[in-house]
């Protein structure tokens, strides 16, 4: 196996939370010194390659992939779509999960949706529909996300109790898949009802 490719794969799925050196040490068969050397070499490789828009950022013992500074403006334009622009399906799914499950980590959101949610989270953060609510007391200290006051105003809610109650799954084994379906379906039903009344 290629250590650099393994690192890139793990850094990608870790998203904005990043991944710690301890986690990499647990997940990879390479030695800790080899991992550190590979991380340094990978960062140098990304920085030297003018065809790549990403670089490796280290904060403490955490590592994550971020866009290079020179592309910050174009990335900001992408995320700062007007609020009148419809939310994408991915953003709606992510927002529904956060609304019902908050405070919730990105990993939990990914598990419910079955795909990576980093981009959707960034769009929702920049639109100020969600916000960070702290960090979970777990390995890596992942960020906890919740809805914002602006979310409440934007969707005409006075409290989270205004959201339709979730239908309990019929079987425990189907709970995770069913919860994801219910979250999105019922949240979209609420949005449709709101649009019809406005």
Give a structural overview.
- The protein is α+β, with helices and mostly antiparallel strands and 198 residues long.
- It folds into two domains: 3-71, Winged helix-like DNA-binding domain superfamily/Winged helix DNA-binding domain (Arc Repressor Mutant, subunit A, Orthogonal Bundle), CATH 1.10.10; 83-197, Orthogonal Bundle (Arc Repressor Mutant, subunit A).
- Helix content is 52%, strand content 14%.
- It is built from nine helices and six strands.
- It has helices at residues 3-14, 21-27, 32-48, 72-79, 89-101, 106-113, 118-126, 149-154, 175-197, and strands at 19-20, 54-59, 62-67, 104-105, 130-135, 143-147.
- A three-stranded antiparallel sheet has the order 1-3-2. A three-stranded antiparallel sheet has the order 4-6-5.
- Strand 2 (54-59) and strand 3 (62-67) form a beta hairpin.
- Helix 5 (89-101) packs across helix 9.
- It is elongated.
- Mean pLDDT is 82; it is low at 169-178.
- This is Segregation and condensation protein B.
- Participates in chromosomal partition during cell division. May act via the formation of a condensin-like complex containing Smc and ScpA that pull DNA away from mid-cell into both cell halves.
- Keywords: Cell cycle, Cell division, Chromosome partition, Cytoplasm.
Comma- or semicolon-separated keywords:
single chain; 198 residues; alpha+beta; Arc Repressor Mutant, subunit A; 2 domains; three-stranded antiparallel β-sheet; elongated
Short recap of the structure:
This is Segregation and condensation protein B. By secondary structure, the protein is an alpha+beta fold.
